[in-house]
Design goal:
The structure is a single chain. This protein has 121 residues and is of the alpha+beta class. It has a single domain (2-119), classed as Lipocalin (Beta Barrel). It has one helix at residues 2-23; strands at residues 25-34, 37-38, 47-50, 55-59, 65-73, 76-81, 90-97, 101-108, 111-119. The chain is globular and about 35 Å long. Mean pLDDT is 85; it is low at 1-16.
Protein backbone atom coordinates (compact mmCIF):
# COMPACT_ATOMS: atom_id res chain seq x y z
CA UNK A 1 0.00 0.00 0.00
CA UNK A 2 2.83 2.39 0.83
CA UNK A 3 4.40 1.76 -2.58
CA UNK A 4 1.12 2.61 -4.29
CA UNK A 5 0.84 5.95 -2.48
CA UNK A 6 4.41 6.80 -3.49
CA UNK A 7 3.41 6.28 -7.12
CA UNK A 8 0.12 8.21 -6.83
CA UNK A 9 1.63 11.35 -5.27
CA UNK A 10 3.72 12.30 -8.33
CA UNK A 11 0.74 11.59 -10.61
CA UNK A 12 -1.47 13.86 -8.51
CA UNK A 13 1.16 16.62 -8.60
CA UNK A 14 1.46 16.35 -12.39
CA UNK A 15 -2.33 16.48 -12.78
CA UNK A 16 -2.58 19.61 -10.58
CA UNK A 17 0.26 21.24 -12.51
CA UNK A 18 -1.57 20.51 -15.80
CA UNK A 19 -4.73 22.12 -14.37
CA UNK A 20 -2.76 25.23 -13.38
CA UNK A 21 -1.29 25.47 -16.89
CA UNK A 22 -4.79 25.31 -18.41
CA UNK A 23 -5.89 28.15 -16.11
CA UNK A 24 -3.20 30.55 -17.34
CA UNK A 25 -4.75 33.42 -19.33
CA UNK A 26 -7.72 35.77 -19.22
CA UNK A 27 -11.20 34.43 -18.48
CA UNK A 28 -14.57 36.18 -18.93
CA UNK A 29 -17.78 35.02 -17.22
CA UNK A 30 -20.50 33.89 -19.62
CA UNK A 31 -23.05 32.73 -17.04
CA UNK A 32 -23.69 33.33 -13.32
CA UNK A 33 -26.21 31.09 -11.57
CA UNK A 34 -27.15 31.02 -7.88
CA UNK A 35 -29.28 28.18 -6.48
CA UNK A 36 -30.32 27.28 -10.04
CA UNK A 37 -31.42 30.80 -11.02
CA UNK A 38 -29.51 33.30 -13.22
CA UNK A 39 -28.01 36.20 -11.27
CA UNK A 40 -29.28 39.52 -12.70
CA UNK A 41 -25.86 41.08 -13.36
CA UNK A 42 -23.98 41.36 -16.65
CA UNK A 43 -21.50 38.43 -16.81
CA UNK A 44 -19.10 40.73 -18.68
CA UNK A 45 -18.34 42.45 -15.36
CA UNK A 46 -16.83 39.25 -13.90
CA UNK A 47 -13.46 37.84 -14.91
CA UNK A 48 -10.16 36.30 -13.87
CA UNK A 49 -6.61 36.47 -15.09
CA UNK A 50 -4.16 33.76 -14.05
CA UNK A 51 -0.40 34.10 -14.61
CA UNK A 52 2.03 31.21 -15.12
CA UNK A 53 3.88 32.30 -11.96
CA UNK A 54 0.89 31.58 -9.68
CA UNK A 55 -0.67 35.04 -9.46
CA UNK A 56 -4.26 35.99 -10.22
CA UNK A 57 -6.47 39.05 -10.66
CA UNK A 58 -10.24 38.96 -10.20
CA UNK A 59 -12.81 41.62 -11.03
CA UNK A 60 -16.51 41.66 -10.32
CA UNK A 61 -19.53 43.92 -10.05
CA UNK A 62 -19.47 47.21 -8.14
CA UNK A 63 -15.76 47.64 -8.99
CA UNK A 64 -14.76 44.78 -6.64
CA UNK A 65 -11.20 43.54 -7.21
CA UNK A 66 -8.89 40.89 -5.80
CA UNK A 67 -5.32 39.98 -6.63
CA UNK A 68 -2.86 37.56 -5.11
CA UNK A 69 -1.65 34.00 -5.40
CA UNK A 70 -3.38 30.81 -6.52
CA UNK A 71 -2.78 27.08 -6.75
CA UNK A 72 -4.76 23.96 -7.62
CA UNK A 73 -5.04 20.86 -5.44
CA UNK A 74 -7.22 18.09 -6.83
CA UNK A 75 -10.44 19.72 -8.04
CA UNK A 76 -10.04 22.78 -5.81
CA UNK A 77 -8.73 26.18 -6.86
CA UNK A 78 -7.24 28.06 -3.90
CA UNK A 79 -6.74 31.83 -3.91
CA UNK A 80 -5.20 34.19 -1.39
CA UNK A 81 -6.09 37.83 -1.94
CA UNK A 82 -3.21 40.13 -1.02
CA UNK A 83 -5.02 43.39 -1.90
CA UNK A 84 -7.49 43.16 0.97
CA UNK A 85 -5.54 42.96 4.22
CA UNK A 86 -8.11 40.94 6.20
CA UNK A 87 -8.27 38.24 3.53
CA UNK A 88 -8.04 34.50 4.16
CA UNK A 89 -7.40 31.70 1.70
CA UNK A 90 -10.52 30.75 -0.27
CA UNK A 91 -11.29 27.71 -2.35
CA UNK A 92 -13.74 26.96 -5.14
CA UNK A 93 -14.41 23.68 -6.88
CA UNK A 94 -13.37 23.32 -10.50
CA UNK A 95 -16.28 21.46 -12.08
CA UNK A 96 -14.79 21.47 -15.57
CA UNK A 97 -11.67 22.96 -17.15
CA UNK A 98 -10.79 22.75 -20.82
CA UNK A 99 -8.52 24.88 -22.99
CA UNK A 100 -11.35 27.40 -23.53
CA UNK A 101 -13.92 26.93 -20.72
CA UNK A 102 -13.89 26.97 -16.93
CA UNK A 103 -16.85 26.07 -14.72
CA UNK A 104 -16.47 26.70 -10.99
CA UNK A 105 -18.75 26.04 -8.01
CA UNK A 106 -18.61 28.17 -4.89
CA UNK A 107 -20.62 28.70 -1.77
CA UNK A 108 -21.72 32.28 -1.12
CA UNK A 109 -23.36 32.63 2.29
CA UNK A 110 -24.90 29.15 2.06
CA UNK A 111 -26.01 29.50 -1.56
CA UNK A 112 -24.47 27.45 -4.36
CA UNK A 113 -23.10 29.65 -7.13
CA UNK A 114 -21.95 28.31 -10.50
CA UNK A 115 -19.78 30.57 -12.66
CA UNK A 116 -19.11 29.61 -16.28
CA UNK A 117 -16.22 31.38 -17.97
CA UNK A 118 -14.75 31.43 -21.45
CA UNK A 119 -11.10 31.98 -22.19
CA UNK A 120 -10.17 35.23 -23.91
CA UNK A 121 -6.44 34.50 -24.28
Amino acid sequence: MKGLSLIMLPLLLVACNMQEKKLVGKWQATSLVEDGMPIPVPPSEVGFEFSPKGFYNFRSTLNYKEAGTFYVSGSLLYTLDTLNKASTEKSVQIIDLTKDSLFIRMNDEGKERIVKLGKLQ
